[in-house]
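Appendix B, Record 12. Input sequence as logged:
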Amino acid sequence: MDRFGRARAAADAFLAKIGTKPLVMGILNVTPDSFSDGGKFVLPESALAQARAMAQAGADVIDLGAESTRPGFTPISEEEEWARLEPVLAPLLEETALPLSIDTTKAAVARRAAVLGAAVVNDVSGLRGDPAMAELVAESGAAVVVMHHREKIDSTIDIVADMIAFFENSLALAQKAGVERRKILLDPGVGFGKTLAQNLGALAATGLLREKFALPVLIGVSRKSFLGALTGAPAEGRLAATLSANLAAFSRGADVFRVHDVAEHVAALKVWSEIDRA
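Logged structural output:
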């Protein structure tokens, strides 16, 4: 029996939807310290309720994270990460047909999730954090989000050139491990080691990245601090700014949008799409 059969089938179903419409990925952090919703969904019951609400609101995929990746986060062990994740992932996989994504940099956590049936590995390290991650993705048949990630801000660099070089390296790692190219999505990594100007430049380069690599692009800007720097709004007050940034990225060819506010994005992207097709 293929222990990754469920994950592979779910990944293929998710990938088949890309390009048919803008896809909304709901964020579900089962962490005590994430920058926006840390502590809200630590209990499995509250996390499951939030997942159900996002599904009802029209999410196309739900992204589960059990270790914060905010600036200054405290790393946790594989066992602690899985102990947070499994009580939500297992029952959610049984009750929903939505594909589930796992936000992790640890191959061992991704493996456990894929065995249960998780469809996507969302790796903020861009396949560079854990040397076993690319091999796990190839073996499991899961889809993978490869994110551009700089450890430190350097205002002197050309951020677009840096992203291109980073993705070329990550894609070479994926190819060497046997990851199917059709299963890869790129994420410009807004908020990860970039100045305000570089974050804006990374978003503006969405179309360039999509054209150069011929791969779908996922955008994750929901409630991030660069939006606060532009508007002065606190994290909970950045919905309008998040919508604006995502619609700008959608107009440049972005395919998937990782957000906290699912219903609002489903509506905004639907209206934009209908106008664009009129």
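The chain is about 50% helix and 15% strand.
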